[in-house]
Amino acid sequence: MPDFSSLTRFATLAGVAFAALLCALALPVLGAWMLLPLAAFAALTALGLHDLWQPHHSILRNYPVLGHMRFLFEGIRPEIRQYLIESDQDEEPFSRDTRSLVYQRAKGQEDKRPFGTRERVYDAGYAWVTHSARPIHIEDSDFRIEVGGPGCTQPYSASIYNISAMSFGSLSGNAIRALNTGARLGRFAHDTGEGSISDHHRAGGGDLIYQVASGYFGRRTEDGRFDPDRFAEITADDQVRMIEIKLSQGAKPGHGGVLPASKISPEIARTRGIPMGVDCVSPPAHSAFSTPLELVDFIAELRRLSGGKPVGFKLCIGHRREFMCMVKAMLERDITPDFIVVDGTEGGTGAAPLEFANHVGMPMVEALTFVHNTLRGAGLRDRIKVAAAGKVVSAFDIARALALGADWCNSARGFMFAIGCIQAQACHTNHCPVGVATQDPVRQRALDIPSKAERVARFHTNTLKALAEITGAAGLTDPHQFLPRHFMVRQRDNTMVTGDEAYPYLPNGFLLAGDPSVAPDYQQRWARADAANFAPRDMED
Question: pLDDT grade, residue 445 (50/70/90)?
């Protein structure tokens, strides 16, 4: 149902229309004195009506007339930024420059900027690509990776840049349609999130990564447990190309969630397979497995039920030993996932406890390095593809993740910007001003599906073109050739080190060899990891 209390955003249009009417009524009495205000209010009324129906700006569709104030402030943005710099104040957590870059690439506008870098080049942690004196021109930027290990009979040729998990329910139906249609146009994949496959996903026709989370939405029994028959039915759909088990989410690892009964519409209830009038609970942990061995058995079962499609899991690294428990279980069963998605704690969400968002879970760079090296140490890296997620928006972000061991990247934030997200941070209120994160049909009407779908596809295409340029500048012919040595990192003492020093690749098979002189911190955790149990053998992590 529409949120009629929020219709006050149309008050400005109603006010100028009413003023125009009053001026017209007063014209015969007051004469020519009323022509000027009549013309002004009539023009504003016409502008507001145009705002309601134009498809390009969601803000104007939801806030006719009044929304133009935002574009006025955008016009003086450089002066505002200069004031912030001179006042030594930071801008919002995710920089306007990055968001503007997404908007420009999504709209097909020029994305070059004058006056050099806007990054803080002298800050610790600043990283850069080492370019070559013999750059290479790369014509084809449709970079792809084949996903499918030994047990997979339906491998998937995935783009190296895809839409990360965002559920219908968290996002509006129009947002899901725009994202999925854009994925189809651009030939890349769209992760469904834990909310299952909606009619909006199917209408878009794009490739889907079907997420299986702890609530088992869309394939659950009446008591909320996993339903294998329903899962097999859903994954038989050709639109489903891969299956992802969500163990934890970077923005709130180890934390479940509740969708209040008041926000559950009949459409969401049907999509998720949940009753109306009852809070929808996502438990922190799965009920289908509780040990590392049971996890890998579950992976094999999902692969069988789906007819051999790629099956993997997504996690934010917490206790490093627990991930090693999973790897030991893979070795013991000789069952490996086809892929692992490493989600950094910097990943986004519509709502998360502040402490979780800021202080729980491992950041992506460190987590990706750890996962990549653990798989190398166990001799499994060649059997498992690794994806990275967590504020991966620019071509540089992708290049760095590939250098640290990723095979592809997922992004939620970048594609949300592409469909018009302005970071109003009202996702949890149902009052999203641009129709992205709301179930209010009046608000989500602002998001025009065809134009935003084109922006999604264009953002993907232009980002990969930029990746091709960075790759060529480094003297490489494919971004998968990036290694840590192609990057430099500034440290706290203002010295610089190569990526090989900061994030080294450890030797293949070193964990199996058991040489205590190689990465002793890895070796100690590996010795305490148990394939049969996540519980530690002692009190240390």
Answer: confident
